[in-house]
Amino acid sequence: VIMMGQPEHSVVTTCAYCGVGCGFKADMKGEEVVRMVPWKDGKANRGHSCVKGRFAWGYATHKDRVLKPMIRKKITDPWQEVSWDEAINYAAGEIKRIQEQYGRDAVGGITSSRCTNEETYLVQKLVRAAFGTNNVDTCARVCHSPTGYGLKTTLGESAGTQTFDSVMHSDVIIVMGANPSAAHPVFASRMKQRLREGAKLIVIDPRQIELVSSAHIKADYHLPVRPGTNTALLTSMAHVIATENLIDEQFVAERCEEKAFREWREFVSLPENSPEAMESVTGVPAADLRGAARLYATQGNGAIYYGLGVTEHSQGSTTVMAIANLAMATGNVGREGVGVNPLRGQNNVQGSCDMGSFPHELPGYRHISDVATRTEFEQAWGVTLQPEPGLRIPNMFDAALDGSFKALYCQGEDIVQSDPNTQHVIAAMSAMECVIVQDIFLNETAKYAHVFLPGSSFLEKDGTFTNAERRISRVRKVMEPKAGMGDWEATCALSNALGYPMNYKHPSEIMDEIARLTPTFKGVSFKKIDELGSIQWPCNDEAPEGTPTMHVNEFVRGKGKFVITKYVPSDERSTRKFPLLLTTGRILSQYNVGAQTRRTENVVWHNEDVLEIHPQDAEDRGVSTGDWVAIQSRAGETVLRADVTDRVQPGVIYTTFHFPESGANVVTTDSSDWATNCPEYKVTAVQVKRVTQP
Ligand code: SF4
């Protein structure tokens, strides 16, 4: 149901769902949104939108919104509504008590990729300057942290290389471990437009996503890679390119480190990395893989777009580096139509990483151990910063269970539902003495909280989001914070109560501070974004209006660095006890853990998660579509309904995780990426059995 009526005024803002970052005009009647109209001047969407941004904003005024701060001494006590002052003072008192009793590093914070850059910056500043620890992390830990590591190592910057418009200059497009039609629909439309014009398409995915075969699009190659073997597949693609003399020798000689390239070439050329040798590992026919590698390397501008099906693996960072290797080897970096393009998930996950939310990096991806960087921030913030990286989210959970981590400030992130191995997360949360949750709803995580600070929706915020193409866009307030205080103001209040003053009059002042302290944001201000519509960072003296394409004449790190990407099998392999591999994904109408979309009319399209299972595996288990099935892994068991389909290959099952009842993360394990601890959501060895209705 869409509320209709005559708008009295409009406010241009940015969608709070996915990393496409569509601009919208909120048509208003007083403080009531009448409708959201895709903004025709939005550079990310050019007047287009999907069913989430266009229709699923009703959650912002949903009756489930909690608008009063609440506290309780124990998680078994009932919540008690209190004033903002009381809640903030209680939270600050608990942080101080815990630090006195257990030490400075017994506390930490988690920033939100749903919140603005300015809010995220403040949370990491609160943790580092007011708490005095580097125990700050972001939900990017569980999605694109391997992108940060992999692209920084190879190319020198932790972000995608292109604009979305760049795809209109691509001749060959690889989509790997991403389902843009469901998760980045507006960008998918632009990609399809280019495909209809004749660009070639290679899909690398265990599942038959919509792009593989739809009414107007048919992939030239679908490589149905076995979950957990991405690195093997890309290394064998590199083998073809290296051994069939398809390398762009001039690009590599001019732009890349010579020794690293030579070692990489020797490694990928080994017979054991050939498509034929790897076929039994990846499950991909060698002839298809050779054909796809030749297509990518020889048919003009080649662009790679990838998603969480690349990063959420024990070799996530290695696979990101394997993608960068392929792009460098074929000269597909540094101009329109090419590049390495992570399709970032949440509206501001790029921004939350940019803003210094990682325990080892200050804003702008500068390492905390670097003395000059630390000194700059110490002088600006008037504190002494710790030189050692702090705890990552999974380390916080482990430390909570061993008794050394006692308090957490978690802004806009439902870690109990979204992080893997739910039982482990719950045990860790239950072991903490003070959990402060700041959110718009009493989410699953709030069940383990002692302080609840009511958050504000995107309609109540002033600030900026940064999308997957590094585009910083304005978020503009269309109504006052329903709880009486915005998220950034609550963070400032907590900091002030802890004795570290934070006195900003407006989020624009926070962005001004970010710009002063972050070289890639030096030229960014609200005023300039308002003038230009949006800005792609880096934006500084060299690029005063921003940077659409990165690494044009040289890589940010100077010379591009090839990295050896040896395939290491995942611990999550099929066994007699757990013979199937579970992988997870998203659908168009719902969003992540569903906290927002489940509270909108979008449930009309999808109101439960189901398990996709191949007909052969279903027959072996006596399962038909609609039957209830139990999924068991070494972590746990959950029950949901089956959908028998050949979208998945034999031996692989698939589900979404938008509804807490289906509990996909009850079965995912704590297996994680070797470099960043990003959980291996995309591969879990499981057994499936038919059960009676739960
Ligand atoms: Fe929002 Fe993404 Fe849909 Fe655009 S494509 S309307 S940003 S959810």
From TrEMBL:
A molecular function (GO) held by this record is: formate dehydrogenase (NAD+) activity
Keyword Amino-acid biosynthesis on this protein? no
Q: What region holds the 4Fe-4S Mo/W bis-MGD-type domain?
A: 8-64
Its GO biological process terms? formate metabolic process; respiratory electron transport chain
Q: Does the keyword Iron-sulfur apply?
A: yes
* Regions that span the bilayer: none
Q: Which keywords does the record carry?
A: 2Fe-2S, 4Fe-4S, Iron, Iron-sulfur, Metal-binding, Oxidoreductase, Repeat
Q: What are the record's GO terms for cellular component? A: membrane; oxidoreductase complex
Task: Tell me its family.
Answer: In the C-terminal section; belongs to the prokaryotic molybdopterin-containing oxidoreductase family.
Q: Could you tell me what this protein is called?
A: Formate dehydrogenase subunit alpha
Native organism: Neopusillimonas maritima
Section covered of the full-length record: 233 to 926 of 955
